[in-house]
Specification:
Number of domains: 1
Bound molecules: beta-D-glucopyranose
CATH class: Mainly Alpha
CATH superfamily: MFS general substrate transporter like domains
Number of strands: 0
Helix content: over 70%
Largest sheet: none
Amino acid sequence: MESITQTVEEPRTKQSRRFVQVVAGTAALAGLLFGFDTGVISGAVLFIKGAFALTPLAEEVLVSAALVGAVFGATLSGRFTDRLGRKRQILITAAIFTAGSIICAVAGSLPVLVVGRLAIGFAIGVASYTAPLYISEMAPPNLRGALVTLNQLAITSGILLAYVIDAVFAPSNGWRLMFAFGALPAIVLGLGIAALPESPRWLLLHRHKEEAIKVFTRIRGTQNVMPEVNDILEHAEPGHGKFSDLLSPVVLPVLICGIALAVIQQITGINTVIYYAPTIFQAAGFHSNEAAIIATAGVGLVNVLMTVVSIPLIDKVGRRPLLLISLTGMGVSLAALGIGFAIGGAALQWIGVLSLAVYIASFAIGLGPVFWLLISEIFPLNVRGQAASIATMANWLSNFIVSLTFLSLLNALGSVWTFVLYAALCGVGVWFCLRFVPETKGVPLEAIERDLRAGRPLRKLGAG
Ligand code: BGC
């Protein structure tokens, strides 16, 4: 590993450092759209219900359309990310985001609205892994965690922005404008990404060596890029891999690890809190509308702030410690929430507020960013898009199932056991991370791939 580590040039000039930041910041607009478009529906649906006289079933279909679209987007796009390239894929996604937002804004009927939301969801599914992957392949190893986490910061900011936009347009029943607003970041993403280069690793995979050298020279701020280029050529199998390669003994274990992390990120309940914070608050004894708004905004704000905190830590403390701290904090706060519901009374209100705050803060500092980061790092280059797309599909599918079953679970098990169940699942997550998740901090992607091809156990990938 040492030889590989030494061959990677860190950005030497201020200009190249700034350029890598611009690349990451632009690609992260995809994260902003991910967050905005998943968040915007909660406010918009209140008005659409009246406008189109929705039945409860129609409302559920509308609200879940984007999640269904995301599952399809993630599933169907992996091969294209490896064939067409990261940049082109993000460009197409930006066009779909724009079209979907406009369709929703002008929709004259429920079916048209659902089509628009399905399209937006499709784009979310594609963008959610392509943007981190693109950033990861551009970033120098020692900044990769922070730069990819900008995407998670954009997701959390997008969720918060959606609440703000919903609040701004709510007094005028402006649900169409709520959707239309989403077209703005989509257009900026499209224009921005069009002006940026393709991932140099993808270029090398397809043997566009001259172009790749140009990009590396620009992002590393030095002419001395041949050692890194040669390392990539040496460690990557040329051309995009086939679907059957995903099942090979080299890729399968790491693919299962990515899928497991995807499922863990969702079954530990993050979106039940994001989508149902007001419901949980009401159950804990806060009944006013203001309390519901404060709950939603508070959850959104803590999520953003703690993601900011994670950025400088992720390349210093490392991925594993953050994951372990995160899942432990989430588990303890969920158990406390369960106990709070068991005690009831006035104590429940404050236990409720405190445990939700600790829960969100814990998620934001680890499991939120680290999942998307790891699936942009651990897969071999020739199947990276396909493997990341499958892990992403698992993430959106689990999200869909958890969101769909949360209220029934509350009804069937009651609040106490529902939250205790989620707490136990955090415990399973801790065990899985301790046992199987590698530490990729500061390790070049090619060193991870070399370890993978050498048959090292998952936990030891990148350990030198
Ligand atoms: C998750 C989403 C979640 C968001 C909240 C992301 O990492 O994948 O499901 O809504 O974080 O911040």
